[in-house]
Write a structure and sequence with these properties.
Glyco_hydro_17; 382 residues; eight-stranded parallel beta barrel; alpha/beta; EC 3.2.1.39; glucan endo-1,3-beta-D-glucosidase; two-stranded antiparallel sheet; glycosidase
Length: 382
């Protein structure tokens, strides 16, 4: 009897420890992008176990996959779901289309799965399709109106994710400005963000800057490694990494359009572990440094030099390597994990991916767990 009580006591202590650890990670502003452009990924039910073991509690999807949302029912994971670019035209002209999409994709899950944001469109400005760009804000407004009709506008935010290509100037950060041809769309878009108090999302990749100019851009500066950095001549603020400089350049650009009340969050950032011959810098060593050092900054609740009181809010790209993504080799090698659950490189976390999960209404059974341990102790991040 005493042995049974002691065993129960230690299980309770372990549960309390994991819960506390999970809350600490959640509070740091770290999330993960869960892309699925692949034919060899584990089932969403298995992924739910993996993320729980890693204490990752924020996930961004590129759609509203019902299998994923169902698999994370009654979990402590907050989801950003995606509404693809292909929906924008219809929703911009017919608000009932947005209402129907929400009723089909969001309502069946919202009571059990924590959906906190809808990302309307992805990198719309990068398409240079001015018709599509013009559809973005009306579509966002349709989604927001539909959420309001359902009484969910305070529970679920409406936003969109953008590429850094929207910037005309990013150096120095205090001189950040938007491309002239996009300002007519960005001014009302930022007004809407301000009105509904939703964040402005940016996909930021210092890797691209290094790849394009490896002789001009110091590798240490993009990998958060010790380096002299640079001083903004207008503000005297010191920058020791490119990601923070990019974020502050975006804040400066937003300010030029009259807003200091819109928060910038990083919806994607990462580093590829493999690339084509001309993709200089793509390696597992550099990817481990980039993401490992980024996790440290998030854990320390670091803000950028211009926004020191606002801890950076980041979704790392990506959870898995995705073998069907088009483009250069790097596009298929941003994952922290291979599809079998093994780490691509070490960033100081541990977790496991079960081989099989049998699911019924009554039970969920895990069989033959694949367990892995990173070499760097997780305690170094807490």
């Amino acid at each position: 009897m005493a042995s049974h009580s002691l065993s129960f006591f230690f299980r309770v202590l372990l549960l309390l420890f994991l819960t506390t650890l999970s809350e600490r990670i959640k509070g740091q502003g770290v999330g993960i992008n869960y892309g699925q452009i692949a034919n060899n990924l584990p089932s969403p039910a298995r992924v739910a176990v993996l993320l729980r073991s890693l204490n990752i509690t924020r996930v961004k999807l590129y759609d509203a996959d019902p299998n994923v949302l169902f698999s994370f029912s009654n979990s402590q994971v907050d989801f950003m779901i995606g509404l693809g670019n292909e929906y924008l035209q219809n929703m911009s002209t017919d608000p009932t289309k947005a209402q129907a999409w929400l009723q089909q994709r969001l309502e069946p899950h919202i009571s059990k799965t924590r959906i906190t944001s809808i990302v309307v469109g992805n990198e719309i400005f990068k398409t240079n399709d001015h018709v599509l760009i013009g559809n973005l804000l009306p579509a966002m407004k349709s989604v927001y109106t539909a959420l309001t009709n359902l009484g969910l506008e305070k529970q679920v935010a409406v936003t969109s994710a953008h590429s850094l290509d929207i910037l005309q100037t990013s150096y120095p950060p205090s001189s950040g400005s938007f491309k002239e041809e996009f300002i007519q769309y960005l001014e009302p878009l930022l007004d809407f963000h301000s009105q509904i108090k939703s964040p402005f999302l940016i996909n930021a990749y210092p890797f691209f800057a290094y790849k394009d100019s490896p002789k001009e851009v110091p590798l240490e500066y993009v990998l958060f490694e010790p380096n002299p950095g640079m001083v903004d001549p207008n503000t005297n603020l010191h920058y020791d990494n490119m990601l923070f400089a990019q974020v502050d350049a975006l804040y400066s650009a937003i300010k030029t359009l009259g807003h200091t009340d819109v928060e910038v969050r990083i919806s994607e950032t990462g580093w590829p572990s493999k690339g084509d011959e001309n993709e200089i810098g793509a390696s597992p060593e550099n990817a481990a440094l980039y993401n490992g050092n980024l996790l440290k900054l998030i854990q320390q609740r670091k803000g950028t030099p211009a926004k020191q009181s606002v801890p950076i809010d980041v979704y790392v790209f990506a959870l898995f390597n995705e073998n069907l993504k088009p483009g250069p080799v790097s596009e298929r090698n941003y994952g922290l994990f291979y599809p079998d659950g093994k780490p691509v490189y070490n960033v100081g976390m541990q977790g496991y991916l079960p081989d099989i999960i049998y699911t019924s209404k009554a039970t969920t059974t895990k069989v033959n767990s694949c367990f892995f341990l990173f070499n760097i102790s997780i305690s170094s991040y807490f």
